Amino acid sequence: MTARPLAYDSVQAALTAVGAAVDAAEAQGVLCGMLAARTDVDPAQWMARVLDGTEPRGQGAREVLEQLSLTYEDARSGLDDPDLRFHLLLPDDEQPLPRRAEALGAWCDGFLFGLGSGEAPPETLTAGEAAEALEGLSEIARVDSDAAQGSDEDAYAELVEFVRVAALMVREQVQPKLRRTPVPVPGNDGDDRLH
Predict the structure, then answer these.
(1) CATH number at residue 73
(2) Cβ(78)–Cβ(35) under 8 Å?
(3) DSSP string spanning 106-175?
(4) Calpha distance 68→24 (Å, rounded)
(5) Kind plus residue range of the DSSP H or E element containing 187
(6) Domain containing 42: what range?
């Protein structure tokens, strides 16, 4: 994994410059959903989805391809990290809470889309903790920025952690890996963990 987290603003600026319809959070969410569903995700296929409807040229094309390449490597290595140091690509804490909540919803929407397009075996997603996690992600994807006006920082931080762990857990259920640190089951204070 990279030494410092990828900057949301850099990825977002590159996407905006070429007129992409998705934001940085949704783009990473789509990628993580695809990576959760299968191991052989072609970065070019993901980039084509993110840049659908655009025709990047010149410096803008170079910058967006560089930022998307960094996003791909960061997400792939984060999801594979044995110590679970995966992080979501979201606006920093200086941004207004409604904007961050909207980006979190877009990330979840992207993850669900990517997972659905990634050919994960349906039986791995329709039972147990994965089904509960996906239901939670689906609810968060529907949150609008107006609803977030009454939220607080602690509630937002808890949602971010839920989404992070849910994504790791879904990937673990679809593609089990031996980890040094087990993936905690979201919302469960007991010892139920996936290894």
Answers:
(1) 1.20.120.740
(2) no
(3) HHHHHHHHHHHTTT--GGGTSSHHHHHHHHHHHHHHT--TTGGGG--HHHHHHHHHHHHHHHHHHHHHHS
(4) 9
(5) none
(6) 8-185
172 assigned to some structural domain: yes
Give the whole-angstrom CA distance, residue 94 versus residue 139. 25
Domain count across the chain: 1
d(CA 13, CA 160): 22
pTM here is: 0.85
Residues in the chain: 195
Cα 152 to Cα 172: distance, rounded to the nearest angstrom: 30
Please write the tens of the pLDDT for every residue from 155-176: 999 999 999 999 999 988 888 7
Q: Cα separations (Å) of 27 from 59, 89, 91?
A: 20, 9, 13
Tokens coding 68? 């998307």
